[in-house]
Amino acid sequence: PRPPAGSRRATMDANGEPLSKNALKKLKKAEEAAKKKAAKEAEKAAKAAAAGGDKKPAKQAEEDLDPQAYFANRQAHFKGVEASGQEVYPHKFQTDCQLCEFVAKYKDTVEDGARIETEEVSVAGRIHFKRQQGKLIFLDLVSDGAKVQIMSDSKTYEDAEAWESVTSLIRRGDVIGIRGFPGKSKRGELSIFPRKIDILSPCYHMIPKNGVKSIETRFRQRYLDLILHPQIRSVFEVRAQVINYVRRFLDERNFLEVETPMMNMVHGGATARPFKTHHNELDIDMYMRVAPELYLKMLIIGGLDRVYEIGRQFRNEGMDQTHNPEFTTCEFYQAYADYHDLMEMTESMISGMVKDITGGYKITYSNPDGDVEIDFTPPFKRVSMMDGLAEEIEKKHGFKVDFPDPNGPEAKDFLLELYQKLGVEPKPPCTVARLIDQLVGDYLEENCTHPTFICDHPEVMSPLAKYHRSRPGLTERFELFVNKRELCNAYTELNNPWTQRERFTQQAAQGSEGDDEAMVKDEDFCVAMEYGLPPTGGWGMGIDRLTMFLTNKDSIREVLLFPAMKPLNHKPSAAASPAPSAPAAALTSTAAAFPACPPVACDAWLPGLNLGSETGLGALATLLQGQNFIGGASPCKADAEVFDAIAVLPFEAKNFYPQVKHWVGTVGLFLPFVRNTWPTPQGPITVPSPAASKPAAKPAAKPAAKPAAKPAKEDEEDDEMDL
Asked: How far, in Å, CA of 467 to CA of 190, rounded?
């Protein structure tokens, strides 16, 4: 009888014939292999159960790690590597080409699927991506804006064990060196097939897979932004092209590039609030420059007829979409030129640069309310400031405006009345210059989409510009606006030293009205002008803003590699609280205690007042409140004699009250022989009550509060880059 089914191996084929000996041997081997495989799987299952359930693949488990745990694991791995005697941070890796050079050399000379094993290349870069297919590992190597695929397996590597070791260590973000041969994958992607991989600098942090979404993180960790978004590099390539084009344009016209001091005793050259620092060796306070203008004009006086400087300026003011405390400008000065010549140069430079970088005169820029086309085709539109204001106001409000002399005493009252008619709230400080500037921003700048020159500013707005040769009260100055933003500022330079001193006086008066951005006197510059400044044209442009237009960026932080950022967990100090109003500031002391002083009297004009005391100077501060001089709007002999009388007081005393400090600075602008010609007032000056002249008590410290946001137009003053 036959044995039961399944009790022994089948020995018949499909046709019922007995199997041959060879067939029986193959069948036996297949059964043994199946048993071994089943035993291995059972062993793996037992180990997994003993470890506490199903175990994820190592790669997947590592990706699921917390960033801190990932950092700790990487740190432990490389400590182990160092302990084994291997170098984790080698001193050098010898490359024979950059990745961009490798791509240029081989992208069109290697056929799909080919390998050139007779040629060896040595390159380095950062791993942007790592993936594995069986025994084949793919890496994306990036450096200097170029990317090359690395195809690595143990067969092409010099040592199989070394390949296993290095490929188990490398991760995204690591900097590695590759020695291998070029080729292409079957799909035609240019690749390197490595014989040796060296880790040059490991990345301990987990690199985000989908880039960085947080704007704050991008700007605070710009290195990470550049690692994850290589396209950011193109923005700064355009910035470099802008600077190189400006430099080449000026060099071709025989300009000399120079460098001037970054720290100055006087913050002149622009109407802006400076950063203050201290020179320890000299024990003096100094200011970071707000503009290089005065030094560059001194070089013109010295015989360098065409000079320019490209460099950083520093202004201690607000930060917004178009303002950063430190920024880059180009300023040039040309002897025997005026603002008409500079307009032509500006048109030629800017339009030529746009065409050179973008390939045409028209660019598309994205505003919050939609895209706009900006046409840089020369010539640019020209608008005279005061005429343009009158025309736009009549067009929008239906009444004519006949502006008085902006430099006259009635100008401020006229402008304040005009603001009431227009239904516009003036933004402090309400100086004539600020009031006109606000109107320009509301009525003229808003219309400047395409490049537009706004010309012929009032003298009160342009302390360093020369008076207009045919329009009294105005200056030969222009600003170039593009898409409602100022890009360039230029003018025919004022070269009369006596007029320059008067202009500094006007600026000091604005300072006494609470404008802390008003320009201060620079006597060294005035003395230099007395040696003779030739007729000169001066010009300045913001490099950052032009780069914004050419790269279609809406924030200045996008075109600065390391923009200014508020520190994390920053709490504003009490000093950051809003400044007191002008009347309060006039009577608030600026020092901790009034210094010891000798008695000082000037009974001819201020009878019974001891100007060497805190009370006496407080009375003088009250008297000066709301006016520039002791007698009112104009200086008189009382100003000259009181100024001479308090000359014996220490510096700290004269600076104790801001109003007295501004008055001393204003009167000091005039030389003694000029002060001697001032008219005599009629009788003594009425002295305020000493009781009302005491300095206001300093306010008690309040909890730190977020400073109130500045009005947008208040920050526009530093747009002028006053030359």
From this structure: 65
